Amino acid sequence: MAMLPLRQSVTVNRYSTDGWGNKSLLKTFTLKCRFEEGTKLTRKTTAQQPGASAIIADEVVSKAQIYLDKYVDIRMTDEIIYTDEGGTARTYLPINIKRIYGLNGKTALTYVEV
């Protein structure tokens, strides 16, 4: 049993690359997971006059975390496809892969940031 409820799933595409840099699909597999996503808007402002400010730039940061049960062979070169409840499919590439270990020394969770 997983530490977290795993009610979503992701599809992972693993590719192989030949000596020329051409990618070919090696295998595809589906994993149960917990998928959490969010978007954050940050704005840089400057004060032009007392009491008034102008927006110089907007920056939108979108990120998602994927929690997988126990040890999962996920690689930085894998392509992760998540389909949300609305039916929209999004493709992600891993940014960070982290293993969370239990007291017994075995992997309890695999944490992937995309």
Descriptive account of the structure:
It is a single chain. This protein is an all-beta fold and about 110 residues long. The protein is about 0% helix and about 70% strand. It is built from no helices and seven strands. The protein has a seven-stranded antiparallel β-sheet with strand order 5-4-1-2-3-7-6, with no helix packed on it.
Fill in the keyword field for this structure:
single chain; 114 residues; mainly beta; Thrombin, subunit H; seven-stranded antiparallel beta sheet; 68% strand; Phage head-tail adapter protein
Average pLDDT figure: 85
CATH class assignment: Mainly Beta
User: Roughly how much helix do the residues carry, as a percent range?
Assistant: under 10%
Helix run count: 0
Low-confidence stretches: none
Number of strands: 7
- Element-level helix/strand string: EEEEEEE
Give a brief outline of the structure.
Helix content is 0%, strand content 68%. The protein is mainly beta. The two termini are 25 Å apart.
SSE blueprint:
Layout: E1 8-17, E2 23-49, E3 52-69, E4 79-83, E5 89-92, E6 96-101, E7 107-113
